[in-house]
Design brief:
The protein has 212 residues and is of the alpha+beta class. The protein has helices at residues 15-23, 26-33, 43-49, 76-79, 95-101, 124-136, 188-203, and strands spanning 39-40, 54-58, 61-68, 81-88, 107-112, 119-123, 147-148, 154-161, 169-173, 178-179. It has one domain (15-203). The chain has seven helices and ten strands. A hairpin with a 6-residue loop joins strand 5 and strand 6. The chain starts with 14 loop residues before the first helix and ends in a 9-residue tail after the last helix.
């Protein structure tokens, strides 16, 4: 969704560049997720509902998508985290406000360019209370260095280690171990039921690790 600046941080976070960047990966994302993803949400929907995330819709299922630019997957830390916008200098709502606190969206697909590996699919209903609790306890915090949009306005991201929200993970391909989603010959109903079962099973497994 965003670029890398000269200091190694992510740079532009404006909607237009983020949306266009993710658009190029739509065919592959649809192939990975399911054949029943019927359309891409329009510009207005994305701006008002999920900030700068591109959204796919499948039979009422809203799937927010972010593709991180090349280079980050070379670092072990970045391979095991997802990021969302957390605070903007302008005061406008971020993904944390809308997607996490506001309850928008059903799933969150997060992957690394160019081959979409690593990638993870997250059940937002299960992730929300976990993320909110981690923020309240200070276990996860906004990025130290802000990014900037094309007008120079600052934006801070929230890096979320995947192991800390493991009960909400529906599918994960970290490049070595793969827990993948169904193939396209399965129906949407079977697709959702299978991953609800997987999600229920994962929710019964607690994760004791904690970052500082």
């Amino acid at each position: 969704m965003t670029g890398m600046d000269s200091n190694g941080g992510e740079s532009h976070t404006d909607f237009e560049s983020s949306f266009k960047w993710t658009q190029r990966f739509i065919p592959k994302i649809k192939e990975i997720l399911a054949p029943r993803v019927i359309r891409v949400s329009n510009d207005k929907e994305d701006r008002t509902e999920a900030t700068d995330l591109l959204t796919l819709r499948a039979d009422g299922l809203r799937i927010a998508c972010r593709v991180r630019r090349p280079g980050y997957s070379d670092h072990p830390q970045f391979r095991q985290e997802v990021t969302i916008t957390f605070r903007r200098e302008t005061g406008s709502a971020c993904e944390y406000d809308k997607m996490i606190k506001g309850g928008w969206g059903d799933w969150f697909f997060y992957a690394h360019a160019p081959d979409l590996v690593p990638r993870v699919l997250i059940d937002l209903a299960r992730a929300r209370p976990l993320i909110i609790d981690l923020v309240k306890r200070g276990v996860i915090k906004e990025s130290a260095k802000p990014n900037k949009d094309r007008l120079g306005r600052r934006c801070w991201f929230l890096p979320i280690p995947i192991p800390l929200i493991q009960p909400s993970v529906l599918a994960h391909n970290d490049g070595s171990k793969i827990t993948e989603i169904p193939t396209e010959d399965q129906s949407q109903k079977a697709f959702r039921e299978k991953w609800q079962t997987a999600s229920d099973k994962m929710a019964r497994t607690s994760y004791s690790g904690e970052t500082t």
